[in-house]
## 1
Amino acid sequence: MDYKKVIAHLRKRIISQDEAIDRIEEALMIAEAGLNEPDKPLCVLLFLGPTGVGKTETVKALAEAIHGEPGAYCRIDMSGLSERHYAASFSGSPPGYIGSKENNTILDKNKIEGRFGKPGILLLDEIEKAHPMVHQTLLHIFDNALLRLASGTEEIRFTNTIIIMTSNVGSEALKAIAEHQEAMRNASEGSTIDWEFSRKQIAMEALERTFKPEFINRIDGIVVFKWLTRNDLMKILNIQLEDLNRKLKRYHSFHAELTQGAKEFLIEKGFDLKYGARPLKRAIRQYLHQPLARLIIEEIIPRNSKVVVDNAGEQLKFEVVSPKTDSLDSEPTVLELKR
């Protein structure tokens, strides 16, 4: 694994979250140099911030960069472990209980342990929703990088594992900070407020109210993800369009070209400070993917052509430009889709 290529991939895919990428880069550099502690995970990171700002997307991009697949990581939804007895779901049923001799665990051993030169990845999503007893089980993993299953016949090692936790604690207070900052920016008012310091202070206060000090003390890095601006969404939109065109060229032999007006239309429909990039993805699906799917199914688009997408007011309009039409500089075919 070339850690520089991994980080380059992350910087291309993840927008405005440089601190998270820097933390991952530190862990990969230490691991590649062989300086990591032999009885600890490669790193334990906590990603804080609201929904839709790229916390899980960062993990997917990391898995894709290391293993070639965005789903090549073990994800545990911690909101499903809110009761005390769910702590046993990590190591299996204790002796004397049904299934105690079986190696039942919610953890994927292969995805966690990885392989030589390619670390495994464990995502603990919404860690704050798990029961405190589950947190205690995690402390043992953070300290020893080892989990022995209740059967006694198998164990999972975390010495080659990047552990990433996500949490939404403090999101409402962080949203208020972001809205205040946006309002002052729009009003062009000068400010001596250190927004970065305020954002991190609020996050840490929320963290200390939620978790015990010994749990926080086991975390190697705490990253507060930034709210996404309209400029950030434009960059994310361009990444989404690159992904779309790869699919269109591979499976249907044409590509789509969006005008600046079409892009601004999607940003306007998809911008919501509270929900991050998710409304944008819904807007892309509604106004771009669905009409394109209809054109594909109705076999309207010739091979090796392009579809020019422009703003038509309350929707997007699609113009098919065939290779012959393009070369002769003729009028393209304008398609009006009935919705």
## 2
Amino acid sequence: MARIVMKFGGTSVADLDRIRNVALKVKREVDAGNEVAVVVSAMSGVTNQLVAWCQSLAPLHDQREYDSVVATGEQVTAGLTAIALQALGVESRSWAGWQIPLQTDDAHGRARITAVEGEALLAEMQAGRVPVVAGFQGIGPGERITTLGRGGSDTSAVALAAGLKADRCDIYTDVDGIYTTDPRIVARARKLDRISYEEMLELASVGAKVLQTRSVELAMKQRVRVQVLSSFEDRPGTLVVDEDEILEQVVVSGIAYSRDEARITLRHVPDRPGVAAAIFGPLSAANVNVDMIVQSVSAEGTTDMTFTVGRTDLPRAEQILAERSAEIAAAAVLTDSD
């Protein structure tokens, strides 16, 4: 008997028929004698709609209220999945992040998990019941709902697997594993049987969408074995494991890219000590994640500095740079969201 956390992404629960399919997969594991916990994302497209509503009302909205809104998508899916399981004769109930509780810091919109108190879930599993957990969310200081950022349901699942000491975390998505590159672009892309945490982290950090970066970081830190599988085909997936479990290493495991980045260029910034801190310190304090940074060679006492942020973070980054314009003293700030 194994203890398994099964996570299903938005395309896997996109409609009622797919939720029924999810329930059948979960029932198969329960019938095999395994202890199972389920983590679900919002139905495909729901989170985008909720985010759009928040942005339409106020582009620079209160992140605490944003979290209260966007967390509802996963709660709907969790309830529907529990109902589907009950219809198959599987004892089940839904759990919101605050009910576990899954504790986080107060960085609303991209909170980090600080603790998982899994005793109540473990008791449910050992009694033969299946908890269905709303992913992507937790509870922060002041008893406020928090969300973990895009792809946060992966992180929820890995954190629960670590807290429950699960044998494996199975992540079901619309692809049947991890490929050497995007098979929709490169026909000769090859599926990997296994990949190390370190290699998967590199791919995720530069745009591979199969797993969210923070979920891989957490899996590597907690040594959680992760398996990526298809919700729609019964075939072996890809295991993300410690490199000691991979007998033969290849020089290059894969190639990834990202379309969700925005570029910011600061022209003719004074080349003096502390200028980088003046730029990136306030961005970090506002939880704006800066990815790649390129700085040109200094000429006549100034330099150009280019960096990328997530496309949804661009308005907030522009506001912060405008507020700090006197301190930064750049001649121009250029942005490109394409």
